Amino acid sequence: MRRKTDIILSGDQKRIVWHLKTKGPTGRSYLAANLDMHNALVTRLTRELLMLGCVEELDGQLTGRGRPTVPLTISGKAGYSAGAMVHPGWLELVLVDFAGTVLARHREPFKNDDPRAFIELIELRLRELALAKNVMRSRMLGLGVAVAGPVATAGSPNRWMVKWLAGWRDLDLAQFFEDALGVPVWVENEATLAGLAEFYDSGLINDCDSAISFFIGHGVGGGVVSRRDILRGEFGNAGEVGRLFPATKQRPSGIDLLGEINAAGGGLTSLLEIEDCMESHAELIDKWAKRVAKQLLSAAQGGVAWLDPGAVIVSGSLPLTLLDSIGANMLKDQDTFKSEHTPSPRLYVSKIGSWAVSVGAALLPIHDIMGAAE
User: Fold this and answer.
1) CATH number of 206-351
2) In contact, 230 and 212? CB cutoff 8 Å
3) Angle at CA 89, nearest 5°, toward 83 and 93?
4) pLDDT tens digit string along 243-288?
């Protein structure tokens, strides 16, 4: 049986928290007016949220009449959540508090496809990080786990995991990890979570309702944010843009770039090593970035036509300078998005790189508690 988080907010509480998250610090009277609630109801609800640690009061500000207005803002005191991802050859773990502030980031080598080995290591590292950051294990709201693999069968909790995590196949991963760790667990596609993290980190969440995103990792994936929430699709596989790029042809993927660099004498074994080749293989990498920009633009054009997003996001487990190069090449042909009579989405390039996946995984439990879609 799946566990529930320690914090369960009512619909009206979620509206208040989400307003503060997207609009910033706000006084109670303004909350009442903006959310069409009675002042007494807002007072009661915010008092409950203060007790939960979901919001906190800022220093009072004088109004025109000299009476202090006490703005409310999102607080990190309600608790924290964790996010984890196994990349080809390494593992990343992130802690964030309820306000979305990153408390800790950890990376280490990992090449075991046994899910027990993964969750045992995560439990050990969580205890170490909690101690180092002086946060109580009892305040942990949940764990988000990013996975590289689509939902295998409609309605099934199982995923067809990539080759290096074949041992994770044929498992209800969320239930398996919950039983081992003793906290609520969310499992979601890596590219979808990267898109969620970029949506938060970029500030798009404040003035944009939707976005489509690309994540260039070992392969290539995507995600869709709609009404500021994850759009999963009929079968849970929205954003599986990898199917647009057959494996028999050149793909906008990390393994594709590794192959080209190694064919030129690079000898790389991991995406983390690409940074060391940015100068020695500059011409090859520049040519690759231009080709990838055209491929992503082609895929994005269909997404823009179908979904009318406010933004197109480019992210990945690549050096930030390389992601910037891809974005710059896409901007050269940004007329692809333009139409004579319709607005165009803006293009955003990641500032957090490979960490976007584990940050997005850590944000997922909190995002779910806040109830963005309500």
Assistant:
1) 3.30.420.40
2) no
3) 15
4) 999 888 999 999 999 999 999 999 998 899 999 999 999 999 999 9
Neighbours of 111 (CB within 10 A): 11
Q: Which among 198, 210, 197 is positioned nearest to 349, based on CA atoms?
A: 198
Residues of the chain with pLDDT under 70: 1-2, 60-68, 334, 336-337, 372-374
What is 6-71 written as a DSSP string? S----HHHHHHHHHHHHH--B-HHHHHHHHT--HHHHHHHHHHHHHHTSEEEPPPEE-TTSPEE--
CA distance 67 to 14: 28
- Surface-to-core class of residue 339, CB atoms within 10 Å of its CB (0-12 exposed, 13-18 middle, 19+ buried): exposed
3.50.50.60, 3.30.420.40, 3.40.50.300, 3.90.1170.50: CATH of 80-193+358-370? 3.30.420.40
Name the residue among 121, 86, 79, 120 with its Cα closest to residue 103: 79
Report pLDDT digits (tens) over 295-321: 999 999 999 999 999 999 999 999 999
Q: What CATH architecture applies to the domain 11-74? A: Orthogonal Bundle (1.10)
Rg (CA), the chain: 22
Domain ranges of the chain: 11-74, 80-193+358-370, 206-351
What is the 3-class SS of 94-110, one letter each residue? EEEECCCCEEEEEEEEE
